[in-house]
Structures are given as structure tokens and as C-alpha cells.
Amino acid sequence: MSDKSLENIYNFLPLSEKIGTSGQPNPEDFDSIKTAGYEIIINLALSDSQNSLDNEEKIVENLGMTYVHIPIVWEEPTLYDFHKFCQVMQDNYQKKVFVHCVANMRVSAFMYLYRIVRDRVSETEAKKDLEKIWKPNETWQKFIEKVLNHSPL
Predict the structure, then answer these.
(1) Contact 9, 15 (CB under 8 A)
(2) Which of 43, 77, 80, 103 is deepest in the core (most CB within 10 A)?
């Protein structure tokens, strides 16, 4: 099935046939995510982030998908956070993964880094997708440089 049904999710951006990203989905959106074939939901937002769903894990698991929560503090992303994210992505590389946060900003930065470090995508190509969502602020730009300077992971 096409990801067309997902286009109404805030800042939805498919990166490949196996990876979709977005801002916070509504409860009903998870049905569409499941129908589109996604098996894993990774949430990078905090539990008390704007528009977060108190019962997101239950919604996802009731649909038969796996839920992984890696809460990333907006003002202080860490190398540990990124390593944990990479491990979950690697553990599920054969599955269709949907990654979201509040606005797809945390996710787009993590996916930018993951694609460069793990998938060997060029920085130029990865940056095109990152900048479809935003241009990282000073905090996130420093984090990006920190991760890139600690490669290979």
C-alpha cells in the first residue's frame, strides 16, 4: 500500500520504502500507519511533550505493532540517545519502521545522522531531507557535529 494515506500526519516524510517519519500522529493515524505496513513505531518525544498521547504505547501494541520510546530532551540530545536509536534501527533493519516526535525535528536530525553514519548516504543527500523539515538550531547543530566527530559508531 502507498503511504498516500499518511500525508495528513503533521510533517510526514517518507525516507525510503522501509522508513517513514513524522510529527506526532493522532490516535486514528496509527491505523493508517499499520495499514501502510509499518511494524515498529519509534517515538523520540518526551511523554509530556505537546500533543503527546498518554496511551500511545497501548494504541500501537493493540494494532499489533511494536512500540519503542526513546525520549530525547529537546534542549539536550546526547550521544547515548543517538546510540540507543541506532541500536533499535539496526535491530529492526528488515522491518518497516515509522519514527516520530512532536514536529519531526528530533527525528529528522537523528535520521540525517543515522543515514550518514550507518547507511553511508552522502551528507548532501541526507541534508535535503533534513531541510525539508527544518534547519537545526544551535543546540542541534552542535549535537550533529558532535555525532559526526565521534564516527564511526
Answers:
(1) no
(2) 43
Task: Give the SS3 label for residue 114.
Answer: helix
Position of cell 536509536? 85
* Chain position carrying cell 546526547: 78
pLDDT digits over 74-93, tens only?
A: 999 999 999 999 999 999 99
**Cα(6)–Cα(99) distance, integer angstroms:** 13
- For the stretch 91-121, pLDDT in tens is 999 999 999 999 999 999 999 999 999 999 9
Domain spans, the chain: 3-149
DSSP-based three-state secondary structure for 115? helix
Topology of 3-149 in CATH? Answer: Protein-Tyrosine Phosphatase; Chain A (3.90.190)
Distance, in Å, from the CA atom of 19 to the CA atom of 93, rounded to the nearest integer, reads: 9
C-alpha cell recorded at residue 93: 533493519
